[in-house]
Amino acid sequence: MNRVFSIIIPTYNCSELLRQTLESIFMQDKSLFECIIVDGSSKDTTVNTIFEYKNKYPDNIKYISEPDRGIYDAMNKGINLAQGEYLYFIGAGDILISNSLTDVYKYTSDNLDLIYGNVFMKSKNFCQGYEVNQKDISITFMCHQQIFYRKSVFDELGKYNLNYKVYADAEFNIKCFGQYKYNKKYINVDIAKYKGNGFSDNIIDEKFIIDYKNIICKYLGSDIYYLYYKKSGRQLIDYLYNTSVKFDIYSNKKYINNIIKIFDEKNSIDRIQNIYLNYQNINSEDRKNIKVIYEYDENIDDENFVIVTDFVKSAELIDFLKDKIKENIIVFGASNLSRKLIKYINKFLKYKNILYILDNDNKKTGKEFNGYKIFLPSDVLCLEKFKILVASTWFKDIRDQLLEIGCKRKNIIRVSS
Length: 417
Hints:
Elements: E1 5-11, H1 15-25, E2 33-39, H2 46-56, E3 61-65, H3 71-81, E4 86-89, E5 95-96, H4 100-105, E6 114-121, E7 126-128, H5 134-139, E8 147-150, H6 151-157, H7 168-177, E9 184-194, H8 199-202, H9 206-219, H10 222-232, H11 234-242, E10 247-251, H12 256-263, E11 272-276, H13 284-287, E12 290-294, E13 306-308, H14 315-322, E14 327-332, H15 336-348, E15 352-358, E16 368-369, E17 372-375, E18 387-390, H16 395-404, E19 412-414
Parallel strand pairs: 1-2, 1-4, 2-3, 6-9, 10-11, 10-12, 12-13, 14-15, 14-18, 15-17, 18-19
Antiparallel strand pairs: 4-8, 5-9, 6-7, 6-8, 16-17
Helix pairs in contact: 1-2, 7-9, 9-10
């Protein structure tokens, strides 16, 4: 009997982590899924664990154990074995949240090709989940643990590209969002807890970053590349994380070293050779070596440069910053990100006037933050009249809170991607 979902787990030397994941899977409605384990010839007791669960749940588990060419080769093998209508990929150590398959199943009758929800990243204490468009997908790498793909999408677009060691799923997602014919839906359902600190956090994928411009331009269009990815700051982060070359930086910020260190998790700061503080005074020979511009300058438009600002801006914020309309705005969140945002607006956007700060921490109520008074959302009237810039990692929860008190969805702007 074909099940609705095929859950695919690539494994290698992860016996105990696999056990945790399987326990969470088999707490779901077993009539809904088959579980396909693709093992890369593990040397520990992983295969024994697979046999143990295969004996417990013979009707639900398929498995193979043989050498492979990496995680995406294993995932592709799982796709070949899958018989479910929707495919779902999860790693050993990740946890399916109780009843999540039942919750997702409710949407499978809506003729959807991609169904995606919320995933909690345990290593970063962060929840990712919101409606994604073509602009977002260029600067946001979605977790495969939050997505259910109709199997026919792989039949049409092909499987994961084995040329990319870490980001083959990112390329595939861009292909999906580049196709208007696919019906995609965000559902406010908590799907999984993602372990993190795994393969993708410790390996660089230099080829993907080299190819990324062409990938975006091919599937999403050149406007998305130039207006969002290049000038959002995401390109700098990808460049730092996924290239091994040394490079120079132009900056008008003397504290650029500290800012880069905030983002830097892979010691890429050591690869920065020179920092130039005045672009106009750099001779033409030295300019050839500059790879990163810190803070966007409209007078410099060179394809070789990577653009970054103090914060990695979301697509919604970029649209907002391009809008020259004079208006009053509100910032949600008294945080370091808010501080950077306020400084940026006051310096570069004189036509935007910040009224005050909102924050859910009642201990901050009545105090000042960067010269602006802090209020609880419930204490402010007529919020629906203003655009609210949400400078918080808990965007989804804050957005839902603001919608409940009457704010318009189009006026709630996510600051950081």
